[in-house]
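Query form — protein Response regulator, LuxR family

QUESTION: What is the three-dimensional structure of this chain?
INPUT:
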Amino acid sequence: MSHPRVLLADDHTLVLEGFRLLLEEHCELVGTAEDGRALLEAAERLQPELVLLDISMPRLNGIDAARMLKKQFPDMKFIFVTMHADPSYVNEAFKAGASGYLLKRSAAQELVQAIQSVMKGDYYVTPLITKDVISTFLTMGRPRIPAADDLTARQREILQLVAEGYSAKEIASQLQLSHRTIEFHKAKIMELLNLHTTADLVKYAVAHGLVTAS
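ANSWER: The structure tokens for Response regulator, LuxR family are given below.
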């Protein structure tokens, strides 16, 4: 099998360097990105075959970044390498277009195995969480609580930026929207998630992996 063209995305430089050392014999590493917005730009410019990415990244989380890129580049493949072991994250990642899901505590050789599987057209989920993923099917009858997936992609973008401490004016500037539109979305997010303060939004975003706790 020829070496796949791979783009690496993680907001920790040491993690990126670890990926580089592990994969340089197995892949053609075309670039790196340290936040979700940079990932979108790099993927469009470099058009890799495969993206290795984290979920929690600044400015735009990995799941929403993957969802956007999958629409633009349907053949692009994504493997998430993250600390989030909860089955809900696995579910969201695959709904966004993932082909693989590993934990950062997975064995190093498992990443190479996952890449080989994905490039053959298969899916890969680390055995560390496979049991938990299966168990979610046993609890599907339980009452459902509001989740980040209930929000639109735009609302998730705004939720993440609010949680990262940006003001409505700053978010409006970044997303090229009006201040009033941002405030409308923020109010709608609170309504959908049954939250009442900006602090509640921050706690929710941290709990659901949209941002990392400082």
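ADDITIONAL NOTE: The chain has two domains: 5-138, 148-207.
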